[in-house]
Design goal:
Elements (H helix, E strand, L loop, with lengths): L11 H15 L12 E7 L6 H16 L4 E6 L10 H6 L5 E5 L25 H10 L2 H12 L4 E8 L6 E3 L13 E3 L4 H7 L3 E3 L6 H6 L5 E2 L4 H7 L7 E4 L8 E7 H6 L2 H35 L4 E4 L2 H21 L1 H24 L3 H8 L32
Parallel strand pairs: 1-2, 1-3, 6-7, 6-8, 9-11
Antiparallel strand pairs: 3-10, 4-10, 5-8, 5-9
Length: 404
């Protein structure tokens, strides 16, 4: 015994032997601590990897990974990785993939109500994407959205609003478009309910995924095309075929994309993981849209200065005809489909409260914009696309005259 110690020194070998004997005689097995494997969801987009729309899905995946501390991961897959772009809904229902990143107007072949959850042509009744989010989360829209997939389409998927990509451009044309008469007979790529809207306006339409538009244009299969506008169109290279680009348009003023997960997969997620997906999706919704606006501005500049594209304001006559055509289609669908009517009237009722109030409280975007960045007019009096601001910023224009 060491001097001053009350505990006898026991040889280490005896301690090890005693531990082994105790283990062997206890009849129990040792517990080995292992790190839990992360939950991985395979989510395929309807877009090629080259588009910022796909980058939005990757942004969601990145935020899910970080917010969950690596316990939940989304494997972001571009269009065609497992199934074709327009088959992600059925593939998710059948558990071929865990989820998809797309836009609900692709599913109008199943039921026309699908278009209402993405902001139909003029169907948002003047709302912007913030207002539509309000309808989703404060006006009962999300409940209708999820009920639509579950009870109307009978599909086992859980959808969430994922990203805005509007207002979109009218599109790209091989020649100038001045009025509705110029639309007649043109063969143009459109998709979803827009094929019916433009057919009503006299256009011939072809439904193509984004990645197939340029090859069709190069072969002369189509005379014009609509995709999104700005950065998305730049990346697809439409300016290499067409030199007339018209914007804006009423066919997709608010385009609300979706992230959807198979219902069984969703139910097996922990409550925390479900909330992480919801929060990450909403954060990416806003962050991506803010970034996207700058990318669109840079794209317009590049179209004009580098590629010599004629970017022209869409004539009001055409946009009015878009709204009229949609109103006719929507009324016909509401007359024959109770769920379409229920959703359509819900959106209209919400817009009837929000839009007039917002118009009263918010100054028109053009008011301050024209003060600092006055629009230039063409010889015909139409506004031209924005020119780059001079170094150091533009000087304020003359103040708008006050009415007396």
């Amino acid at each position: 015994m060491k001097k001053g110690s009350l505990v006898p020194r026991v040889p280490i070998a005896l301690v090890v032997v005693a531990a082994l004997v105790a283990l062997l005689t206890s009849g129990s097995t040792p517990t080995v601590a292992t790190a839990q494997s992360p939950v991985v969801l395979k989510v395929q987009a309807s877009w090629p990897a080259s588009l910022t729309l796909f980058e939005q899905l990757k942004m969601i995946a990145e935020r899910v990974d970080k917010l969950s501390g690596g316990t939940l991961k989304i494997e972001a897959l571009p269009a065609g990785t497992i199934v074709p772009a327009f088959e992600v809904l059925d593939a998710t229902h059948k558990k071929v993939i865990d989820g998809f990143h797309s836009v609900s107007y692709y599913w109008v072949g199943k039921n026309k109500t699908a278009v209402l959850f993405t902001g139909a042509p003029g169907g948002t009744f003047g709302m912007d994407w913030v207002d539509v989010l309000g309808w989703m989360y404060e006006g009962g829209g999300l409940e209708l959205y999820q009920q639509f997939y579950k009870d109307v389409l009978k599909l086992n998927v859980v959808p969430l609003p994922a990203f805005p990509s509007g207002p979109q451009a009218l599109g790209w044309f091989k020649r100038p478009i001045k009025n509705i008469a110029d639309f007649k007979g043109m063969k143009c790529r459109q998709t979803g309910i827009n094929t019916e809207v433009y057919t009503e306006m006299g256009m011939r339409t072809v439904n193509l995924p984004g990645g197939e538009i340029l090859p069709a244009a190069e072969r002369g299969v189509i005379d014009c095309a609509e995709w999104v506008g700005g950065i998305e169109d730049l990346r697809l290279g439409f300016h290499n075929v067409w030199k007339y680009h018209y914007t804006p348009s009423m066919h997709e003023t608010v385009t609300m994309g979706e992230l959807a997960i198979n219902g069984d997969v969703w139910d097996k997620l922990s409550p925390v993981h479900k909330e992480i997906i919801k929060s990450a999706t909403m954060e990416a919704f806003i962050r991506w849209y803010a970034k996207w606006q700058r990318q669109n501005a840079d794209a317009i500049k590049e179209f004009q200065e580098k590629h010599k594209v004629n970017i022209i304001k869409t004539p009001n006559e055409i946009m009015i005809e878009q709204l009229k055509a949609w109103d006719k289609l929507a009324q016909r669908e509401a007359d024959k489909d109770p769920f379409f009517k229920k959703t359509y009237e819900s959106m209209r009722a919400y817009a009837a409260v929000v839009v007039p109030a917002k118009r009263f409280m918010f100054p028109p975007y053009d008011f301050a914009a024209n003060y600092y960045w006055p629009e230039k007019k063409t010889a015909a009096g139409a506004p031209t696309a924005p020119a780059a601001a001079p170094a150091g910023g533009a000087k304020p224009a003359a103040k708008p005259a006050e009415k007396k």
